[in-house]
């Protein structure tokens, strides 16, 4: 799905550039598949004169992909991030130059890209596929009906990505909710680093009534606040939604928000992952969540409270009770809760080690947001 702000050339070009797609079918790309798999640094060597600053960008993405998920190698994961990384170069950005080259009739211009294409397409082939009947929407503020007559199939050569950092606001959530949730277009809705706030979340929450398709909702860094959490919690408490993963990191959620989530967990039977890193949840919030998990919830498998700096040693017994008494949870992440003492961490590790197939994470990590520090 393309952003509603298709007139922003830097942030939205990758979504709304359907207007530059050729309406004729270019010659298929051939030759890259015979190339060897090499490191990302080697893959971009032929591109040094074509893409400004690509070496520096490669260094940055490699640093961020040292321990990738989805069974990808660091180079494979970094090759995907290299394409999706936003820059300020407009038409000289990596993704823009690649897409322009993919669309050209002169296939010889693609030869310098073969090593990179081999690497990134190998990486993409290892990721889970979406259902064959999934619809992907792209938008452009142009009338292109003459170029795209009904009933005719077109091949798009440019790559695309998702709705991160598109300056989406609550006014945009009506169309997002309609297309992604109500019209059952998405199984995972990924909206981090936008500005949808509590009003936008209330629109999304309303769309979750009787939802049967959306499985994951990621609204990291959206200024959701406790009010937005309340909207989501009320809907999820009804058990009419199939949502399994809810990610609410960096959203100024306090113990009041934790209360709403705890009340939801007492009734919800579909959610298996609740991610709340880098919020303002303290010991009282941990107590409320622990009570819900110990006495009521039997389905949540992963709880993330890392980087909540207000959590202190007073929460240690709550964490111990969760590990000892809740039967469904297999992952508890409280990494870098800075007020937890070393002694408390040793106690928690000892309890976790006594449980079979349980992961306790107390390690330090850093979560980045495009926003100023909150």
From TrEMBL:
Gene Ontology molecular function terms on file: GTPase activator activity; small GTPase binding
UniProt keyword terms in alphabetical order: GTPase activation, Leucine-rich repeat, Repeat
A GO biological-process term: nucleocytoplasmic transport
Pfam families xref list: LRR_6
InterPro entries membership: Leu-rich_rpt, LRR_dom_sf, RanGap
Keyword Ribosomal protein: no
Gene3D superfamilies: Ribonuclease Inhibitor, Toxin ADP-ribosyltransferase, Chain A, domain 1
One GO cellular component, as annotated: cytosol
Protein's recorded name: Uncharacterized protein
Organism: Adineta steineri
Lineage: Eukaryota, Metazoa, Spiralia, Gnathifera, Rotifera
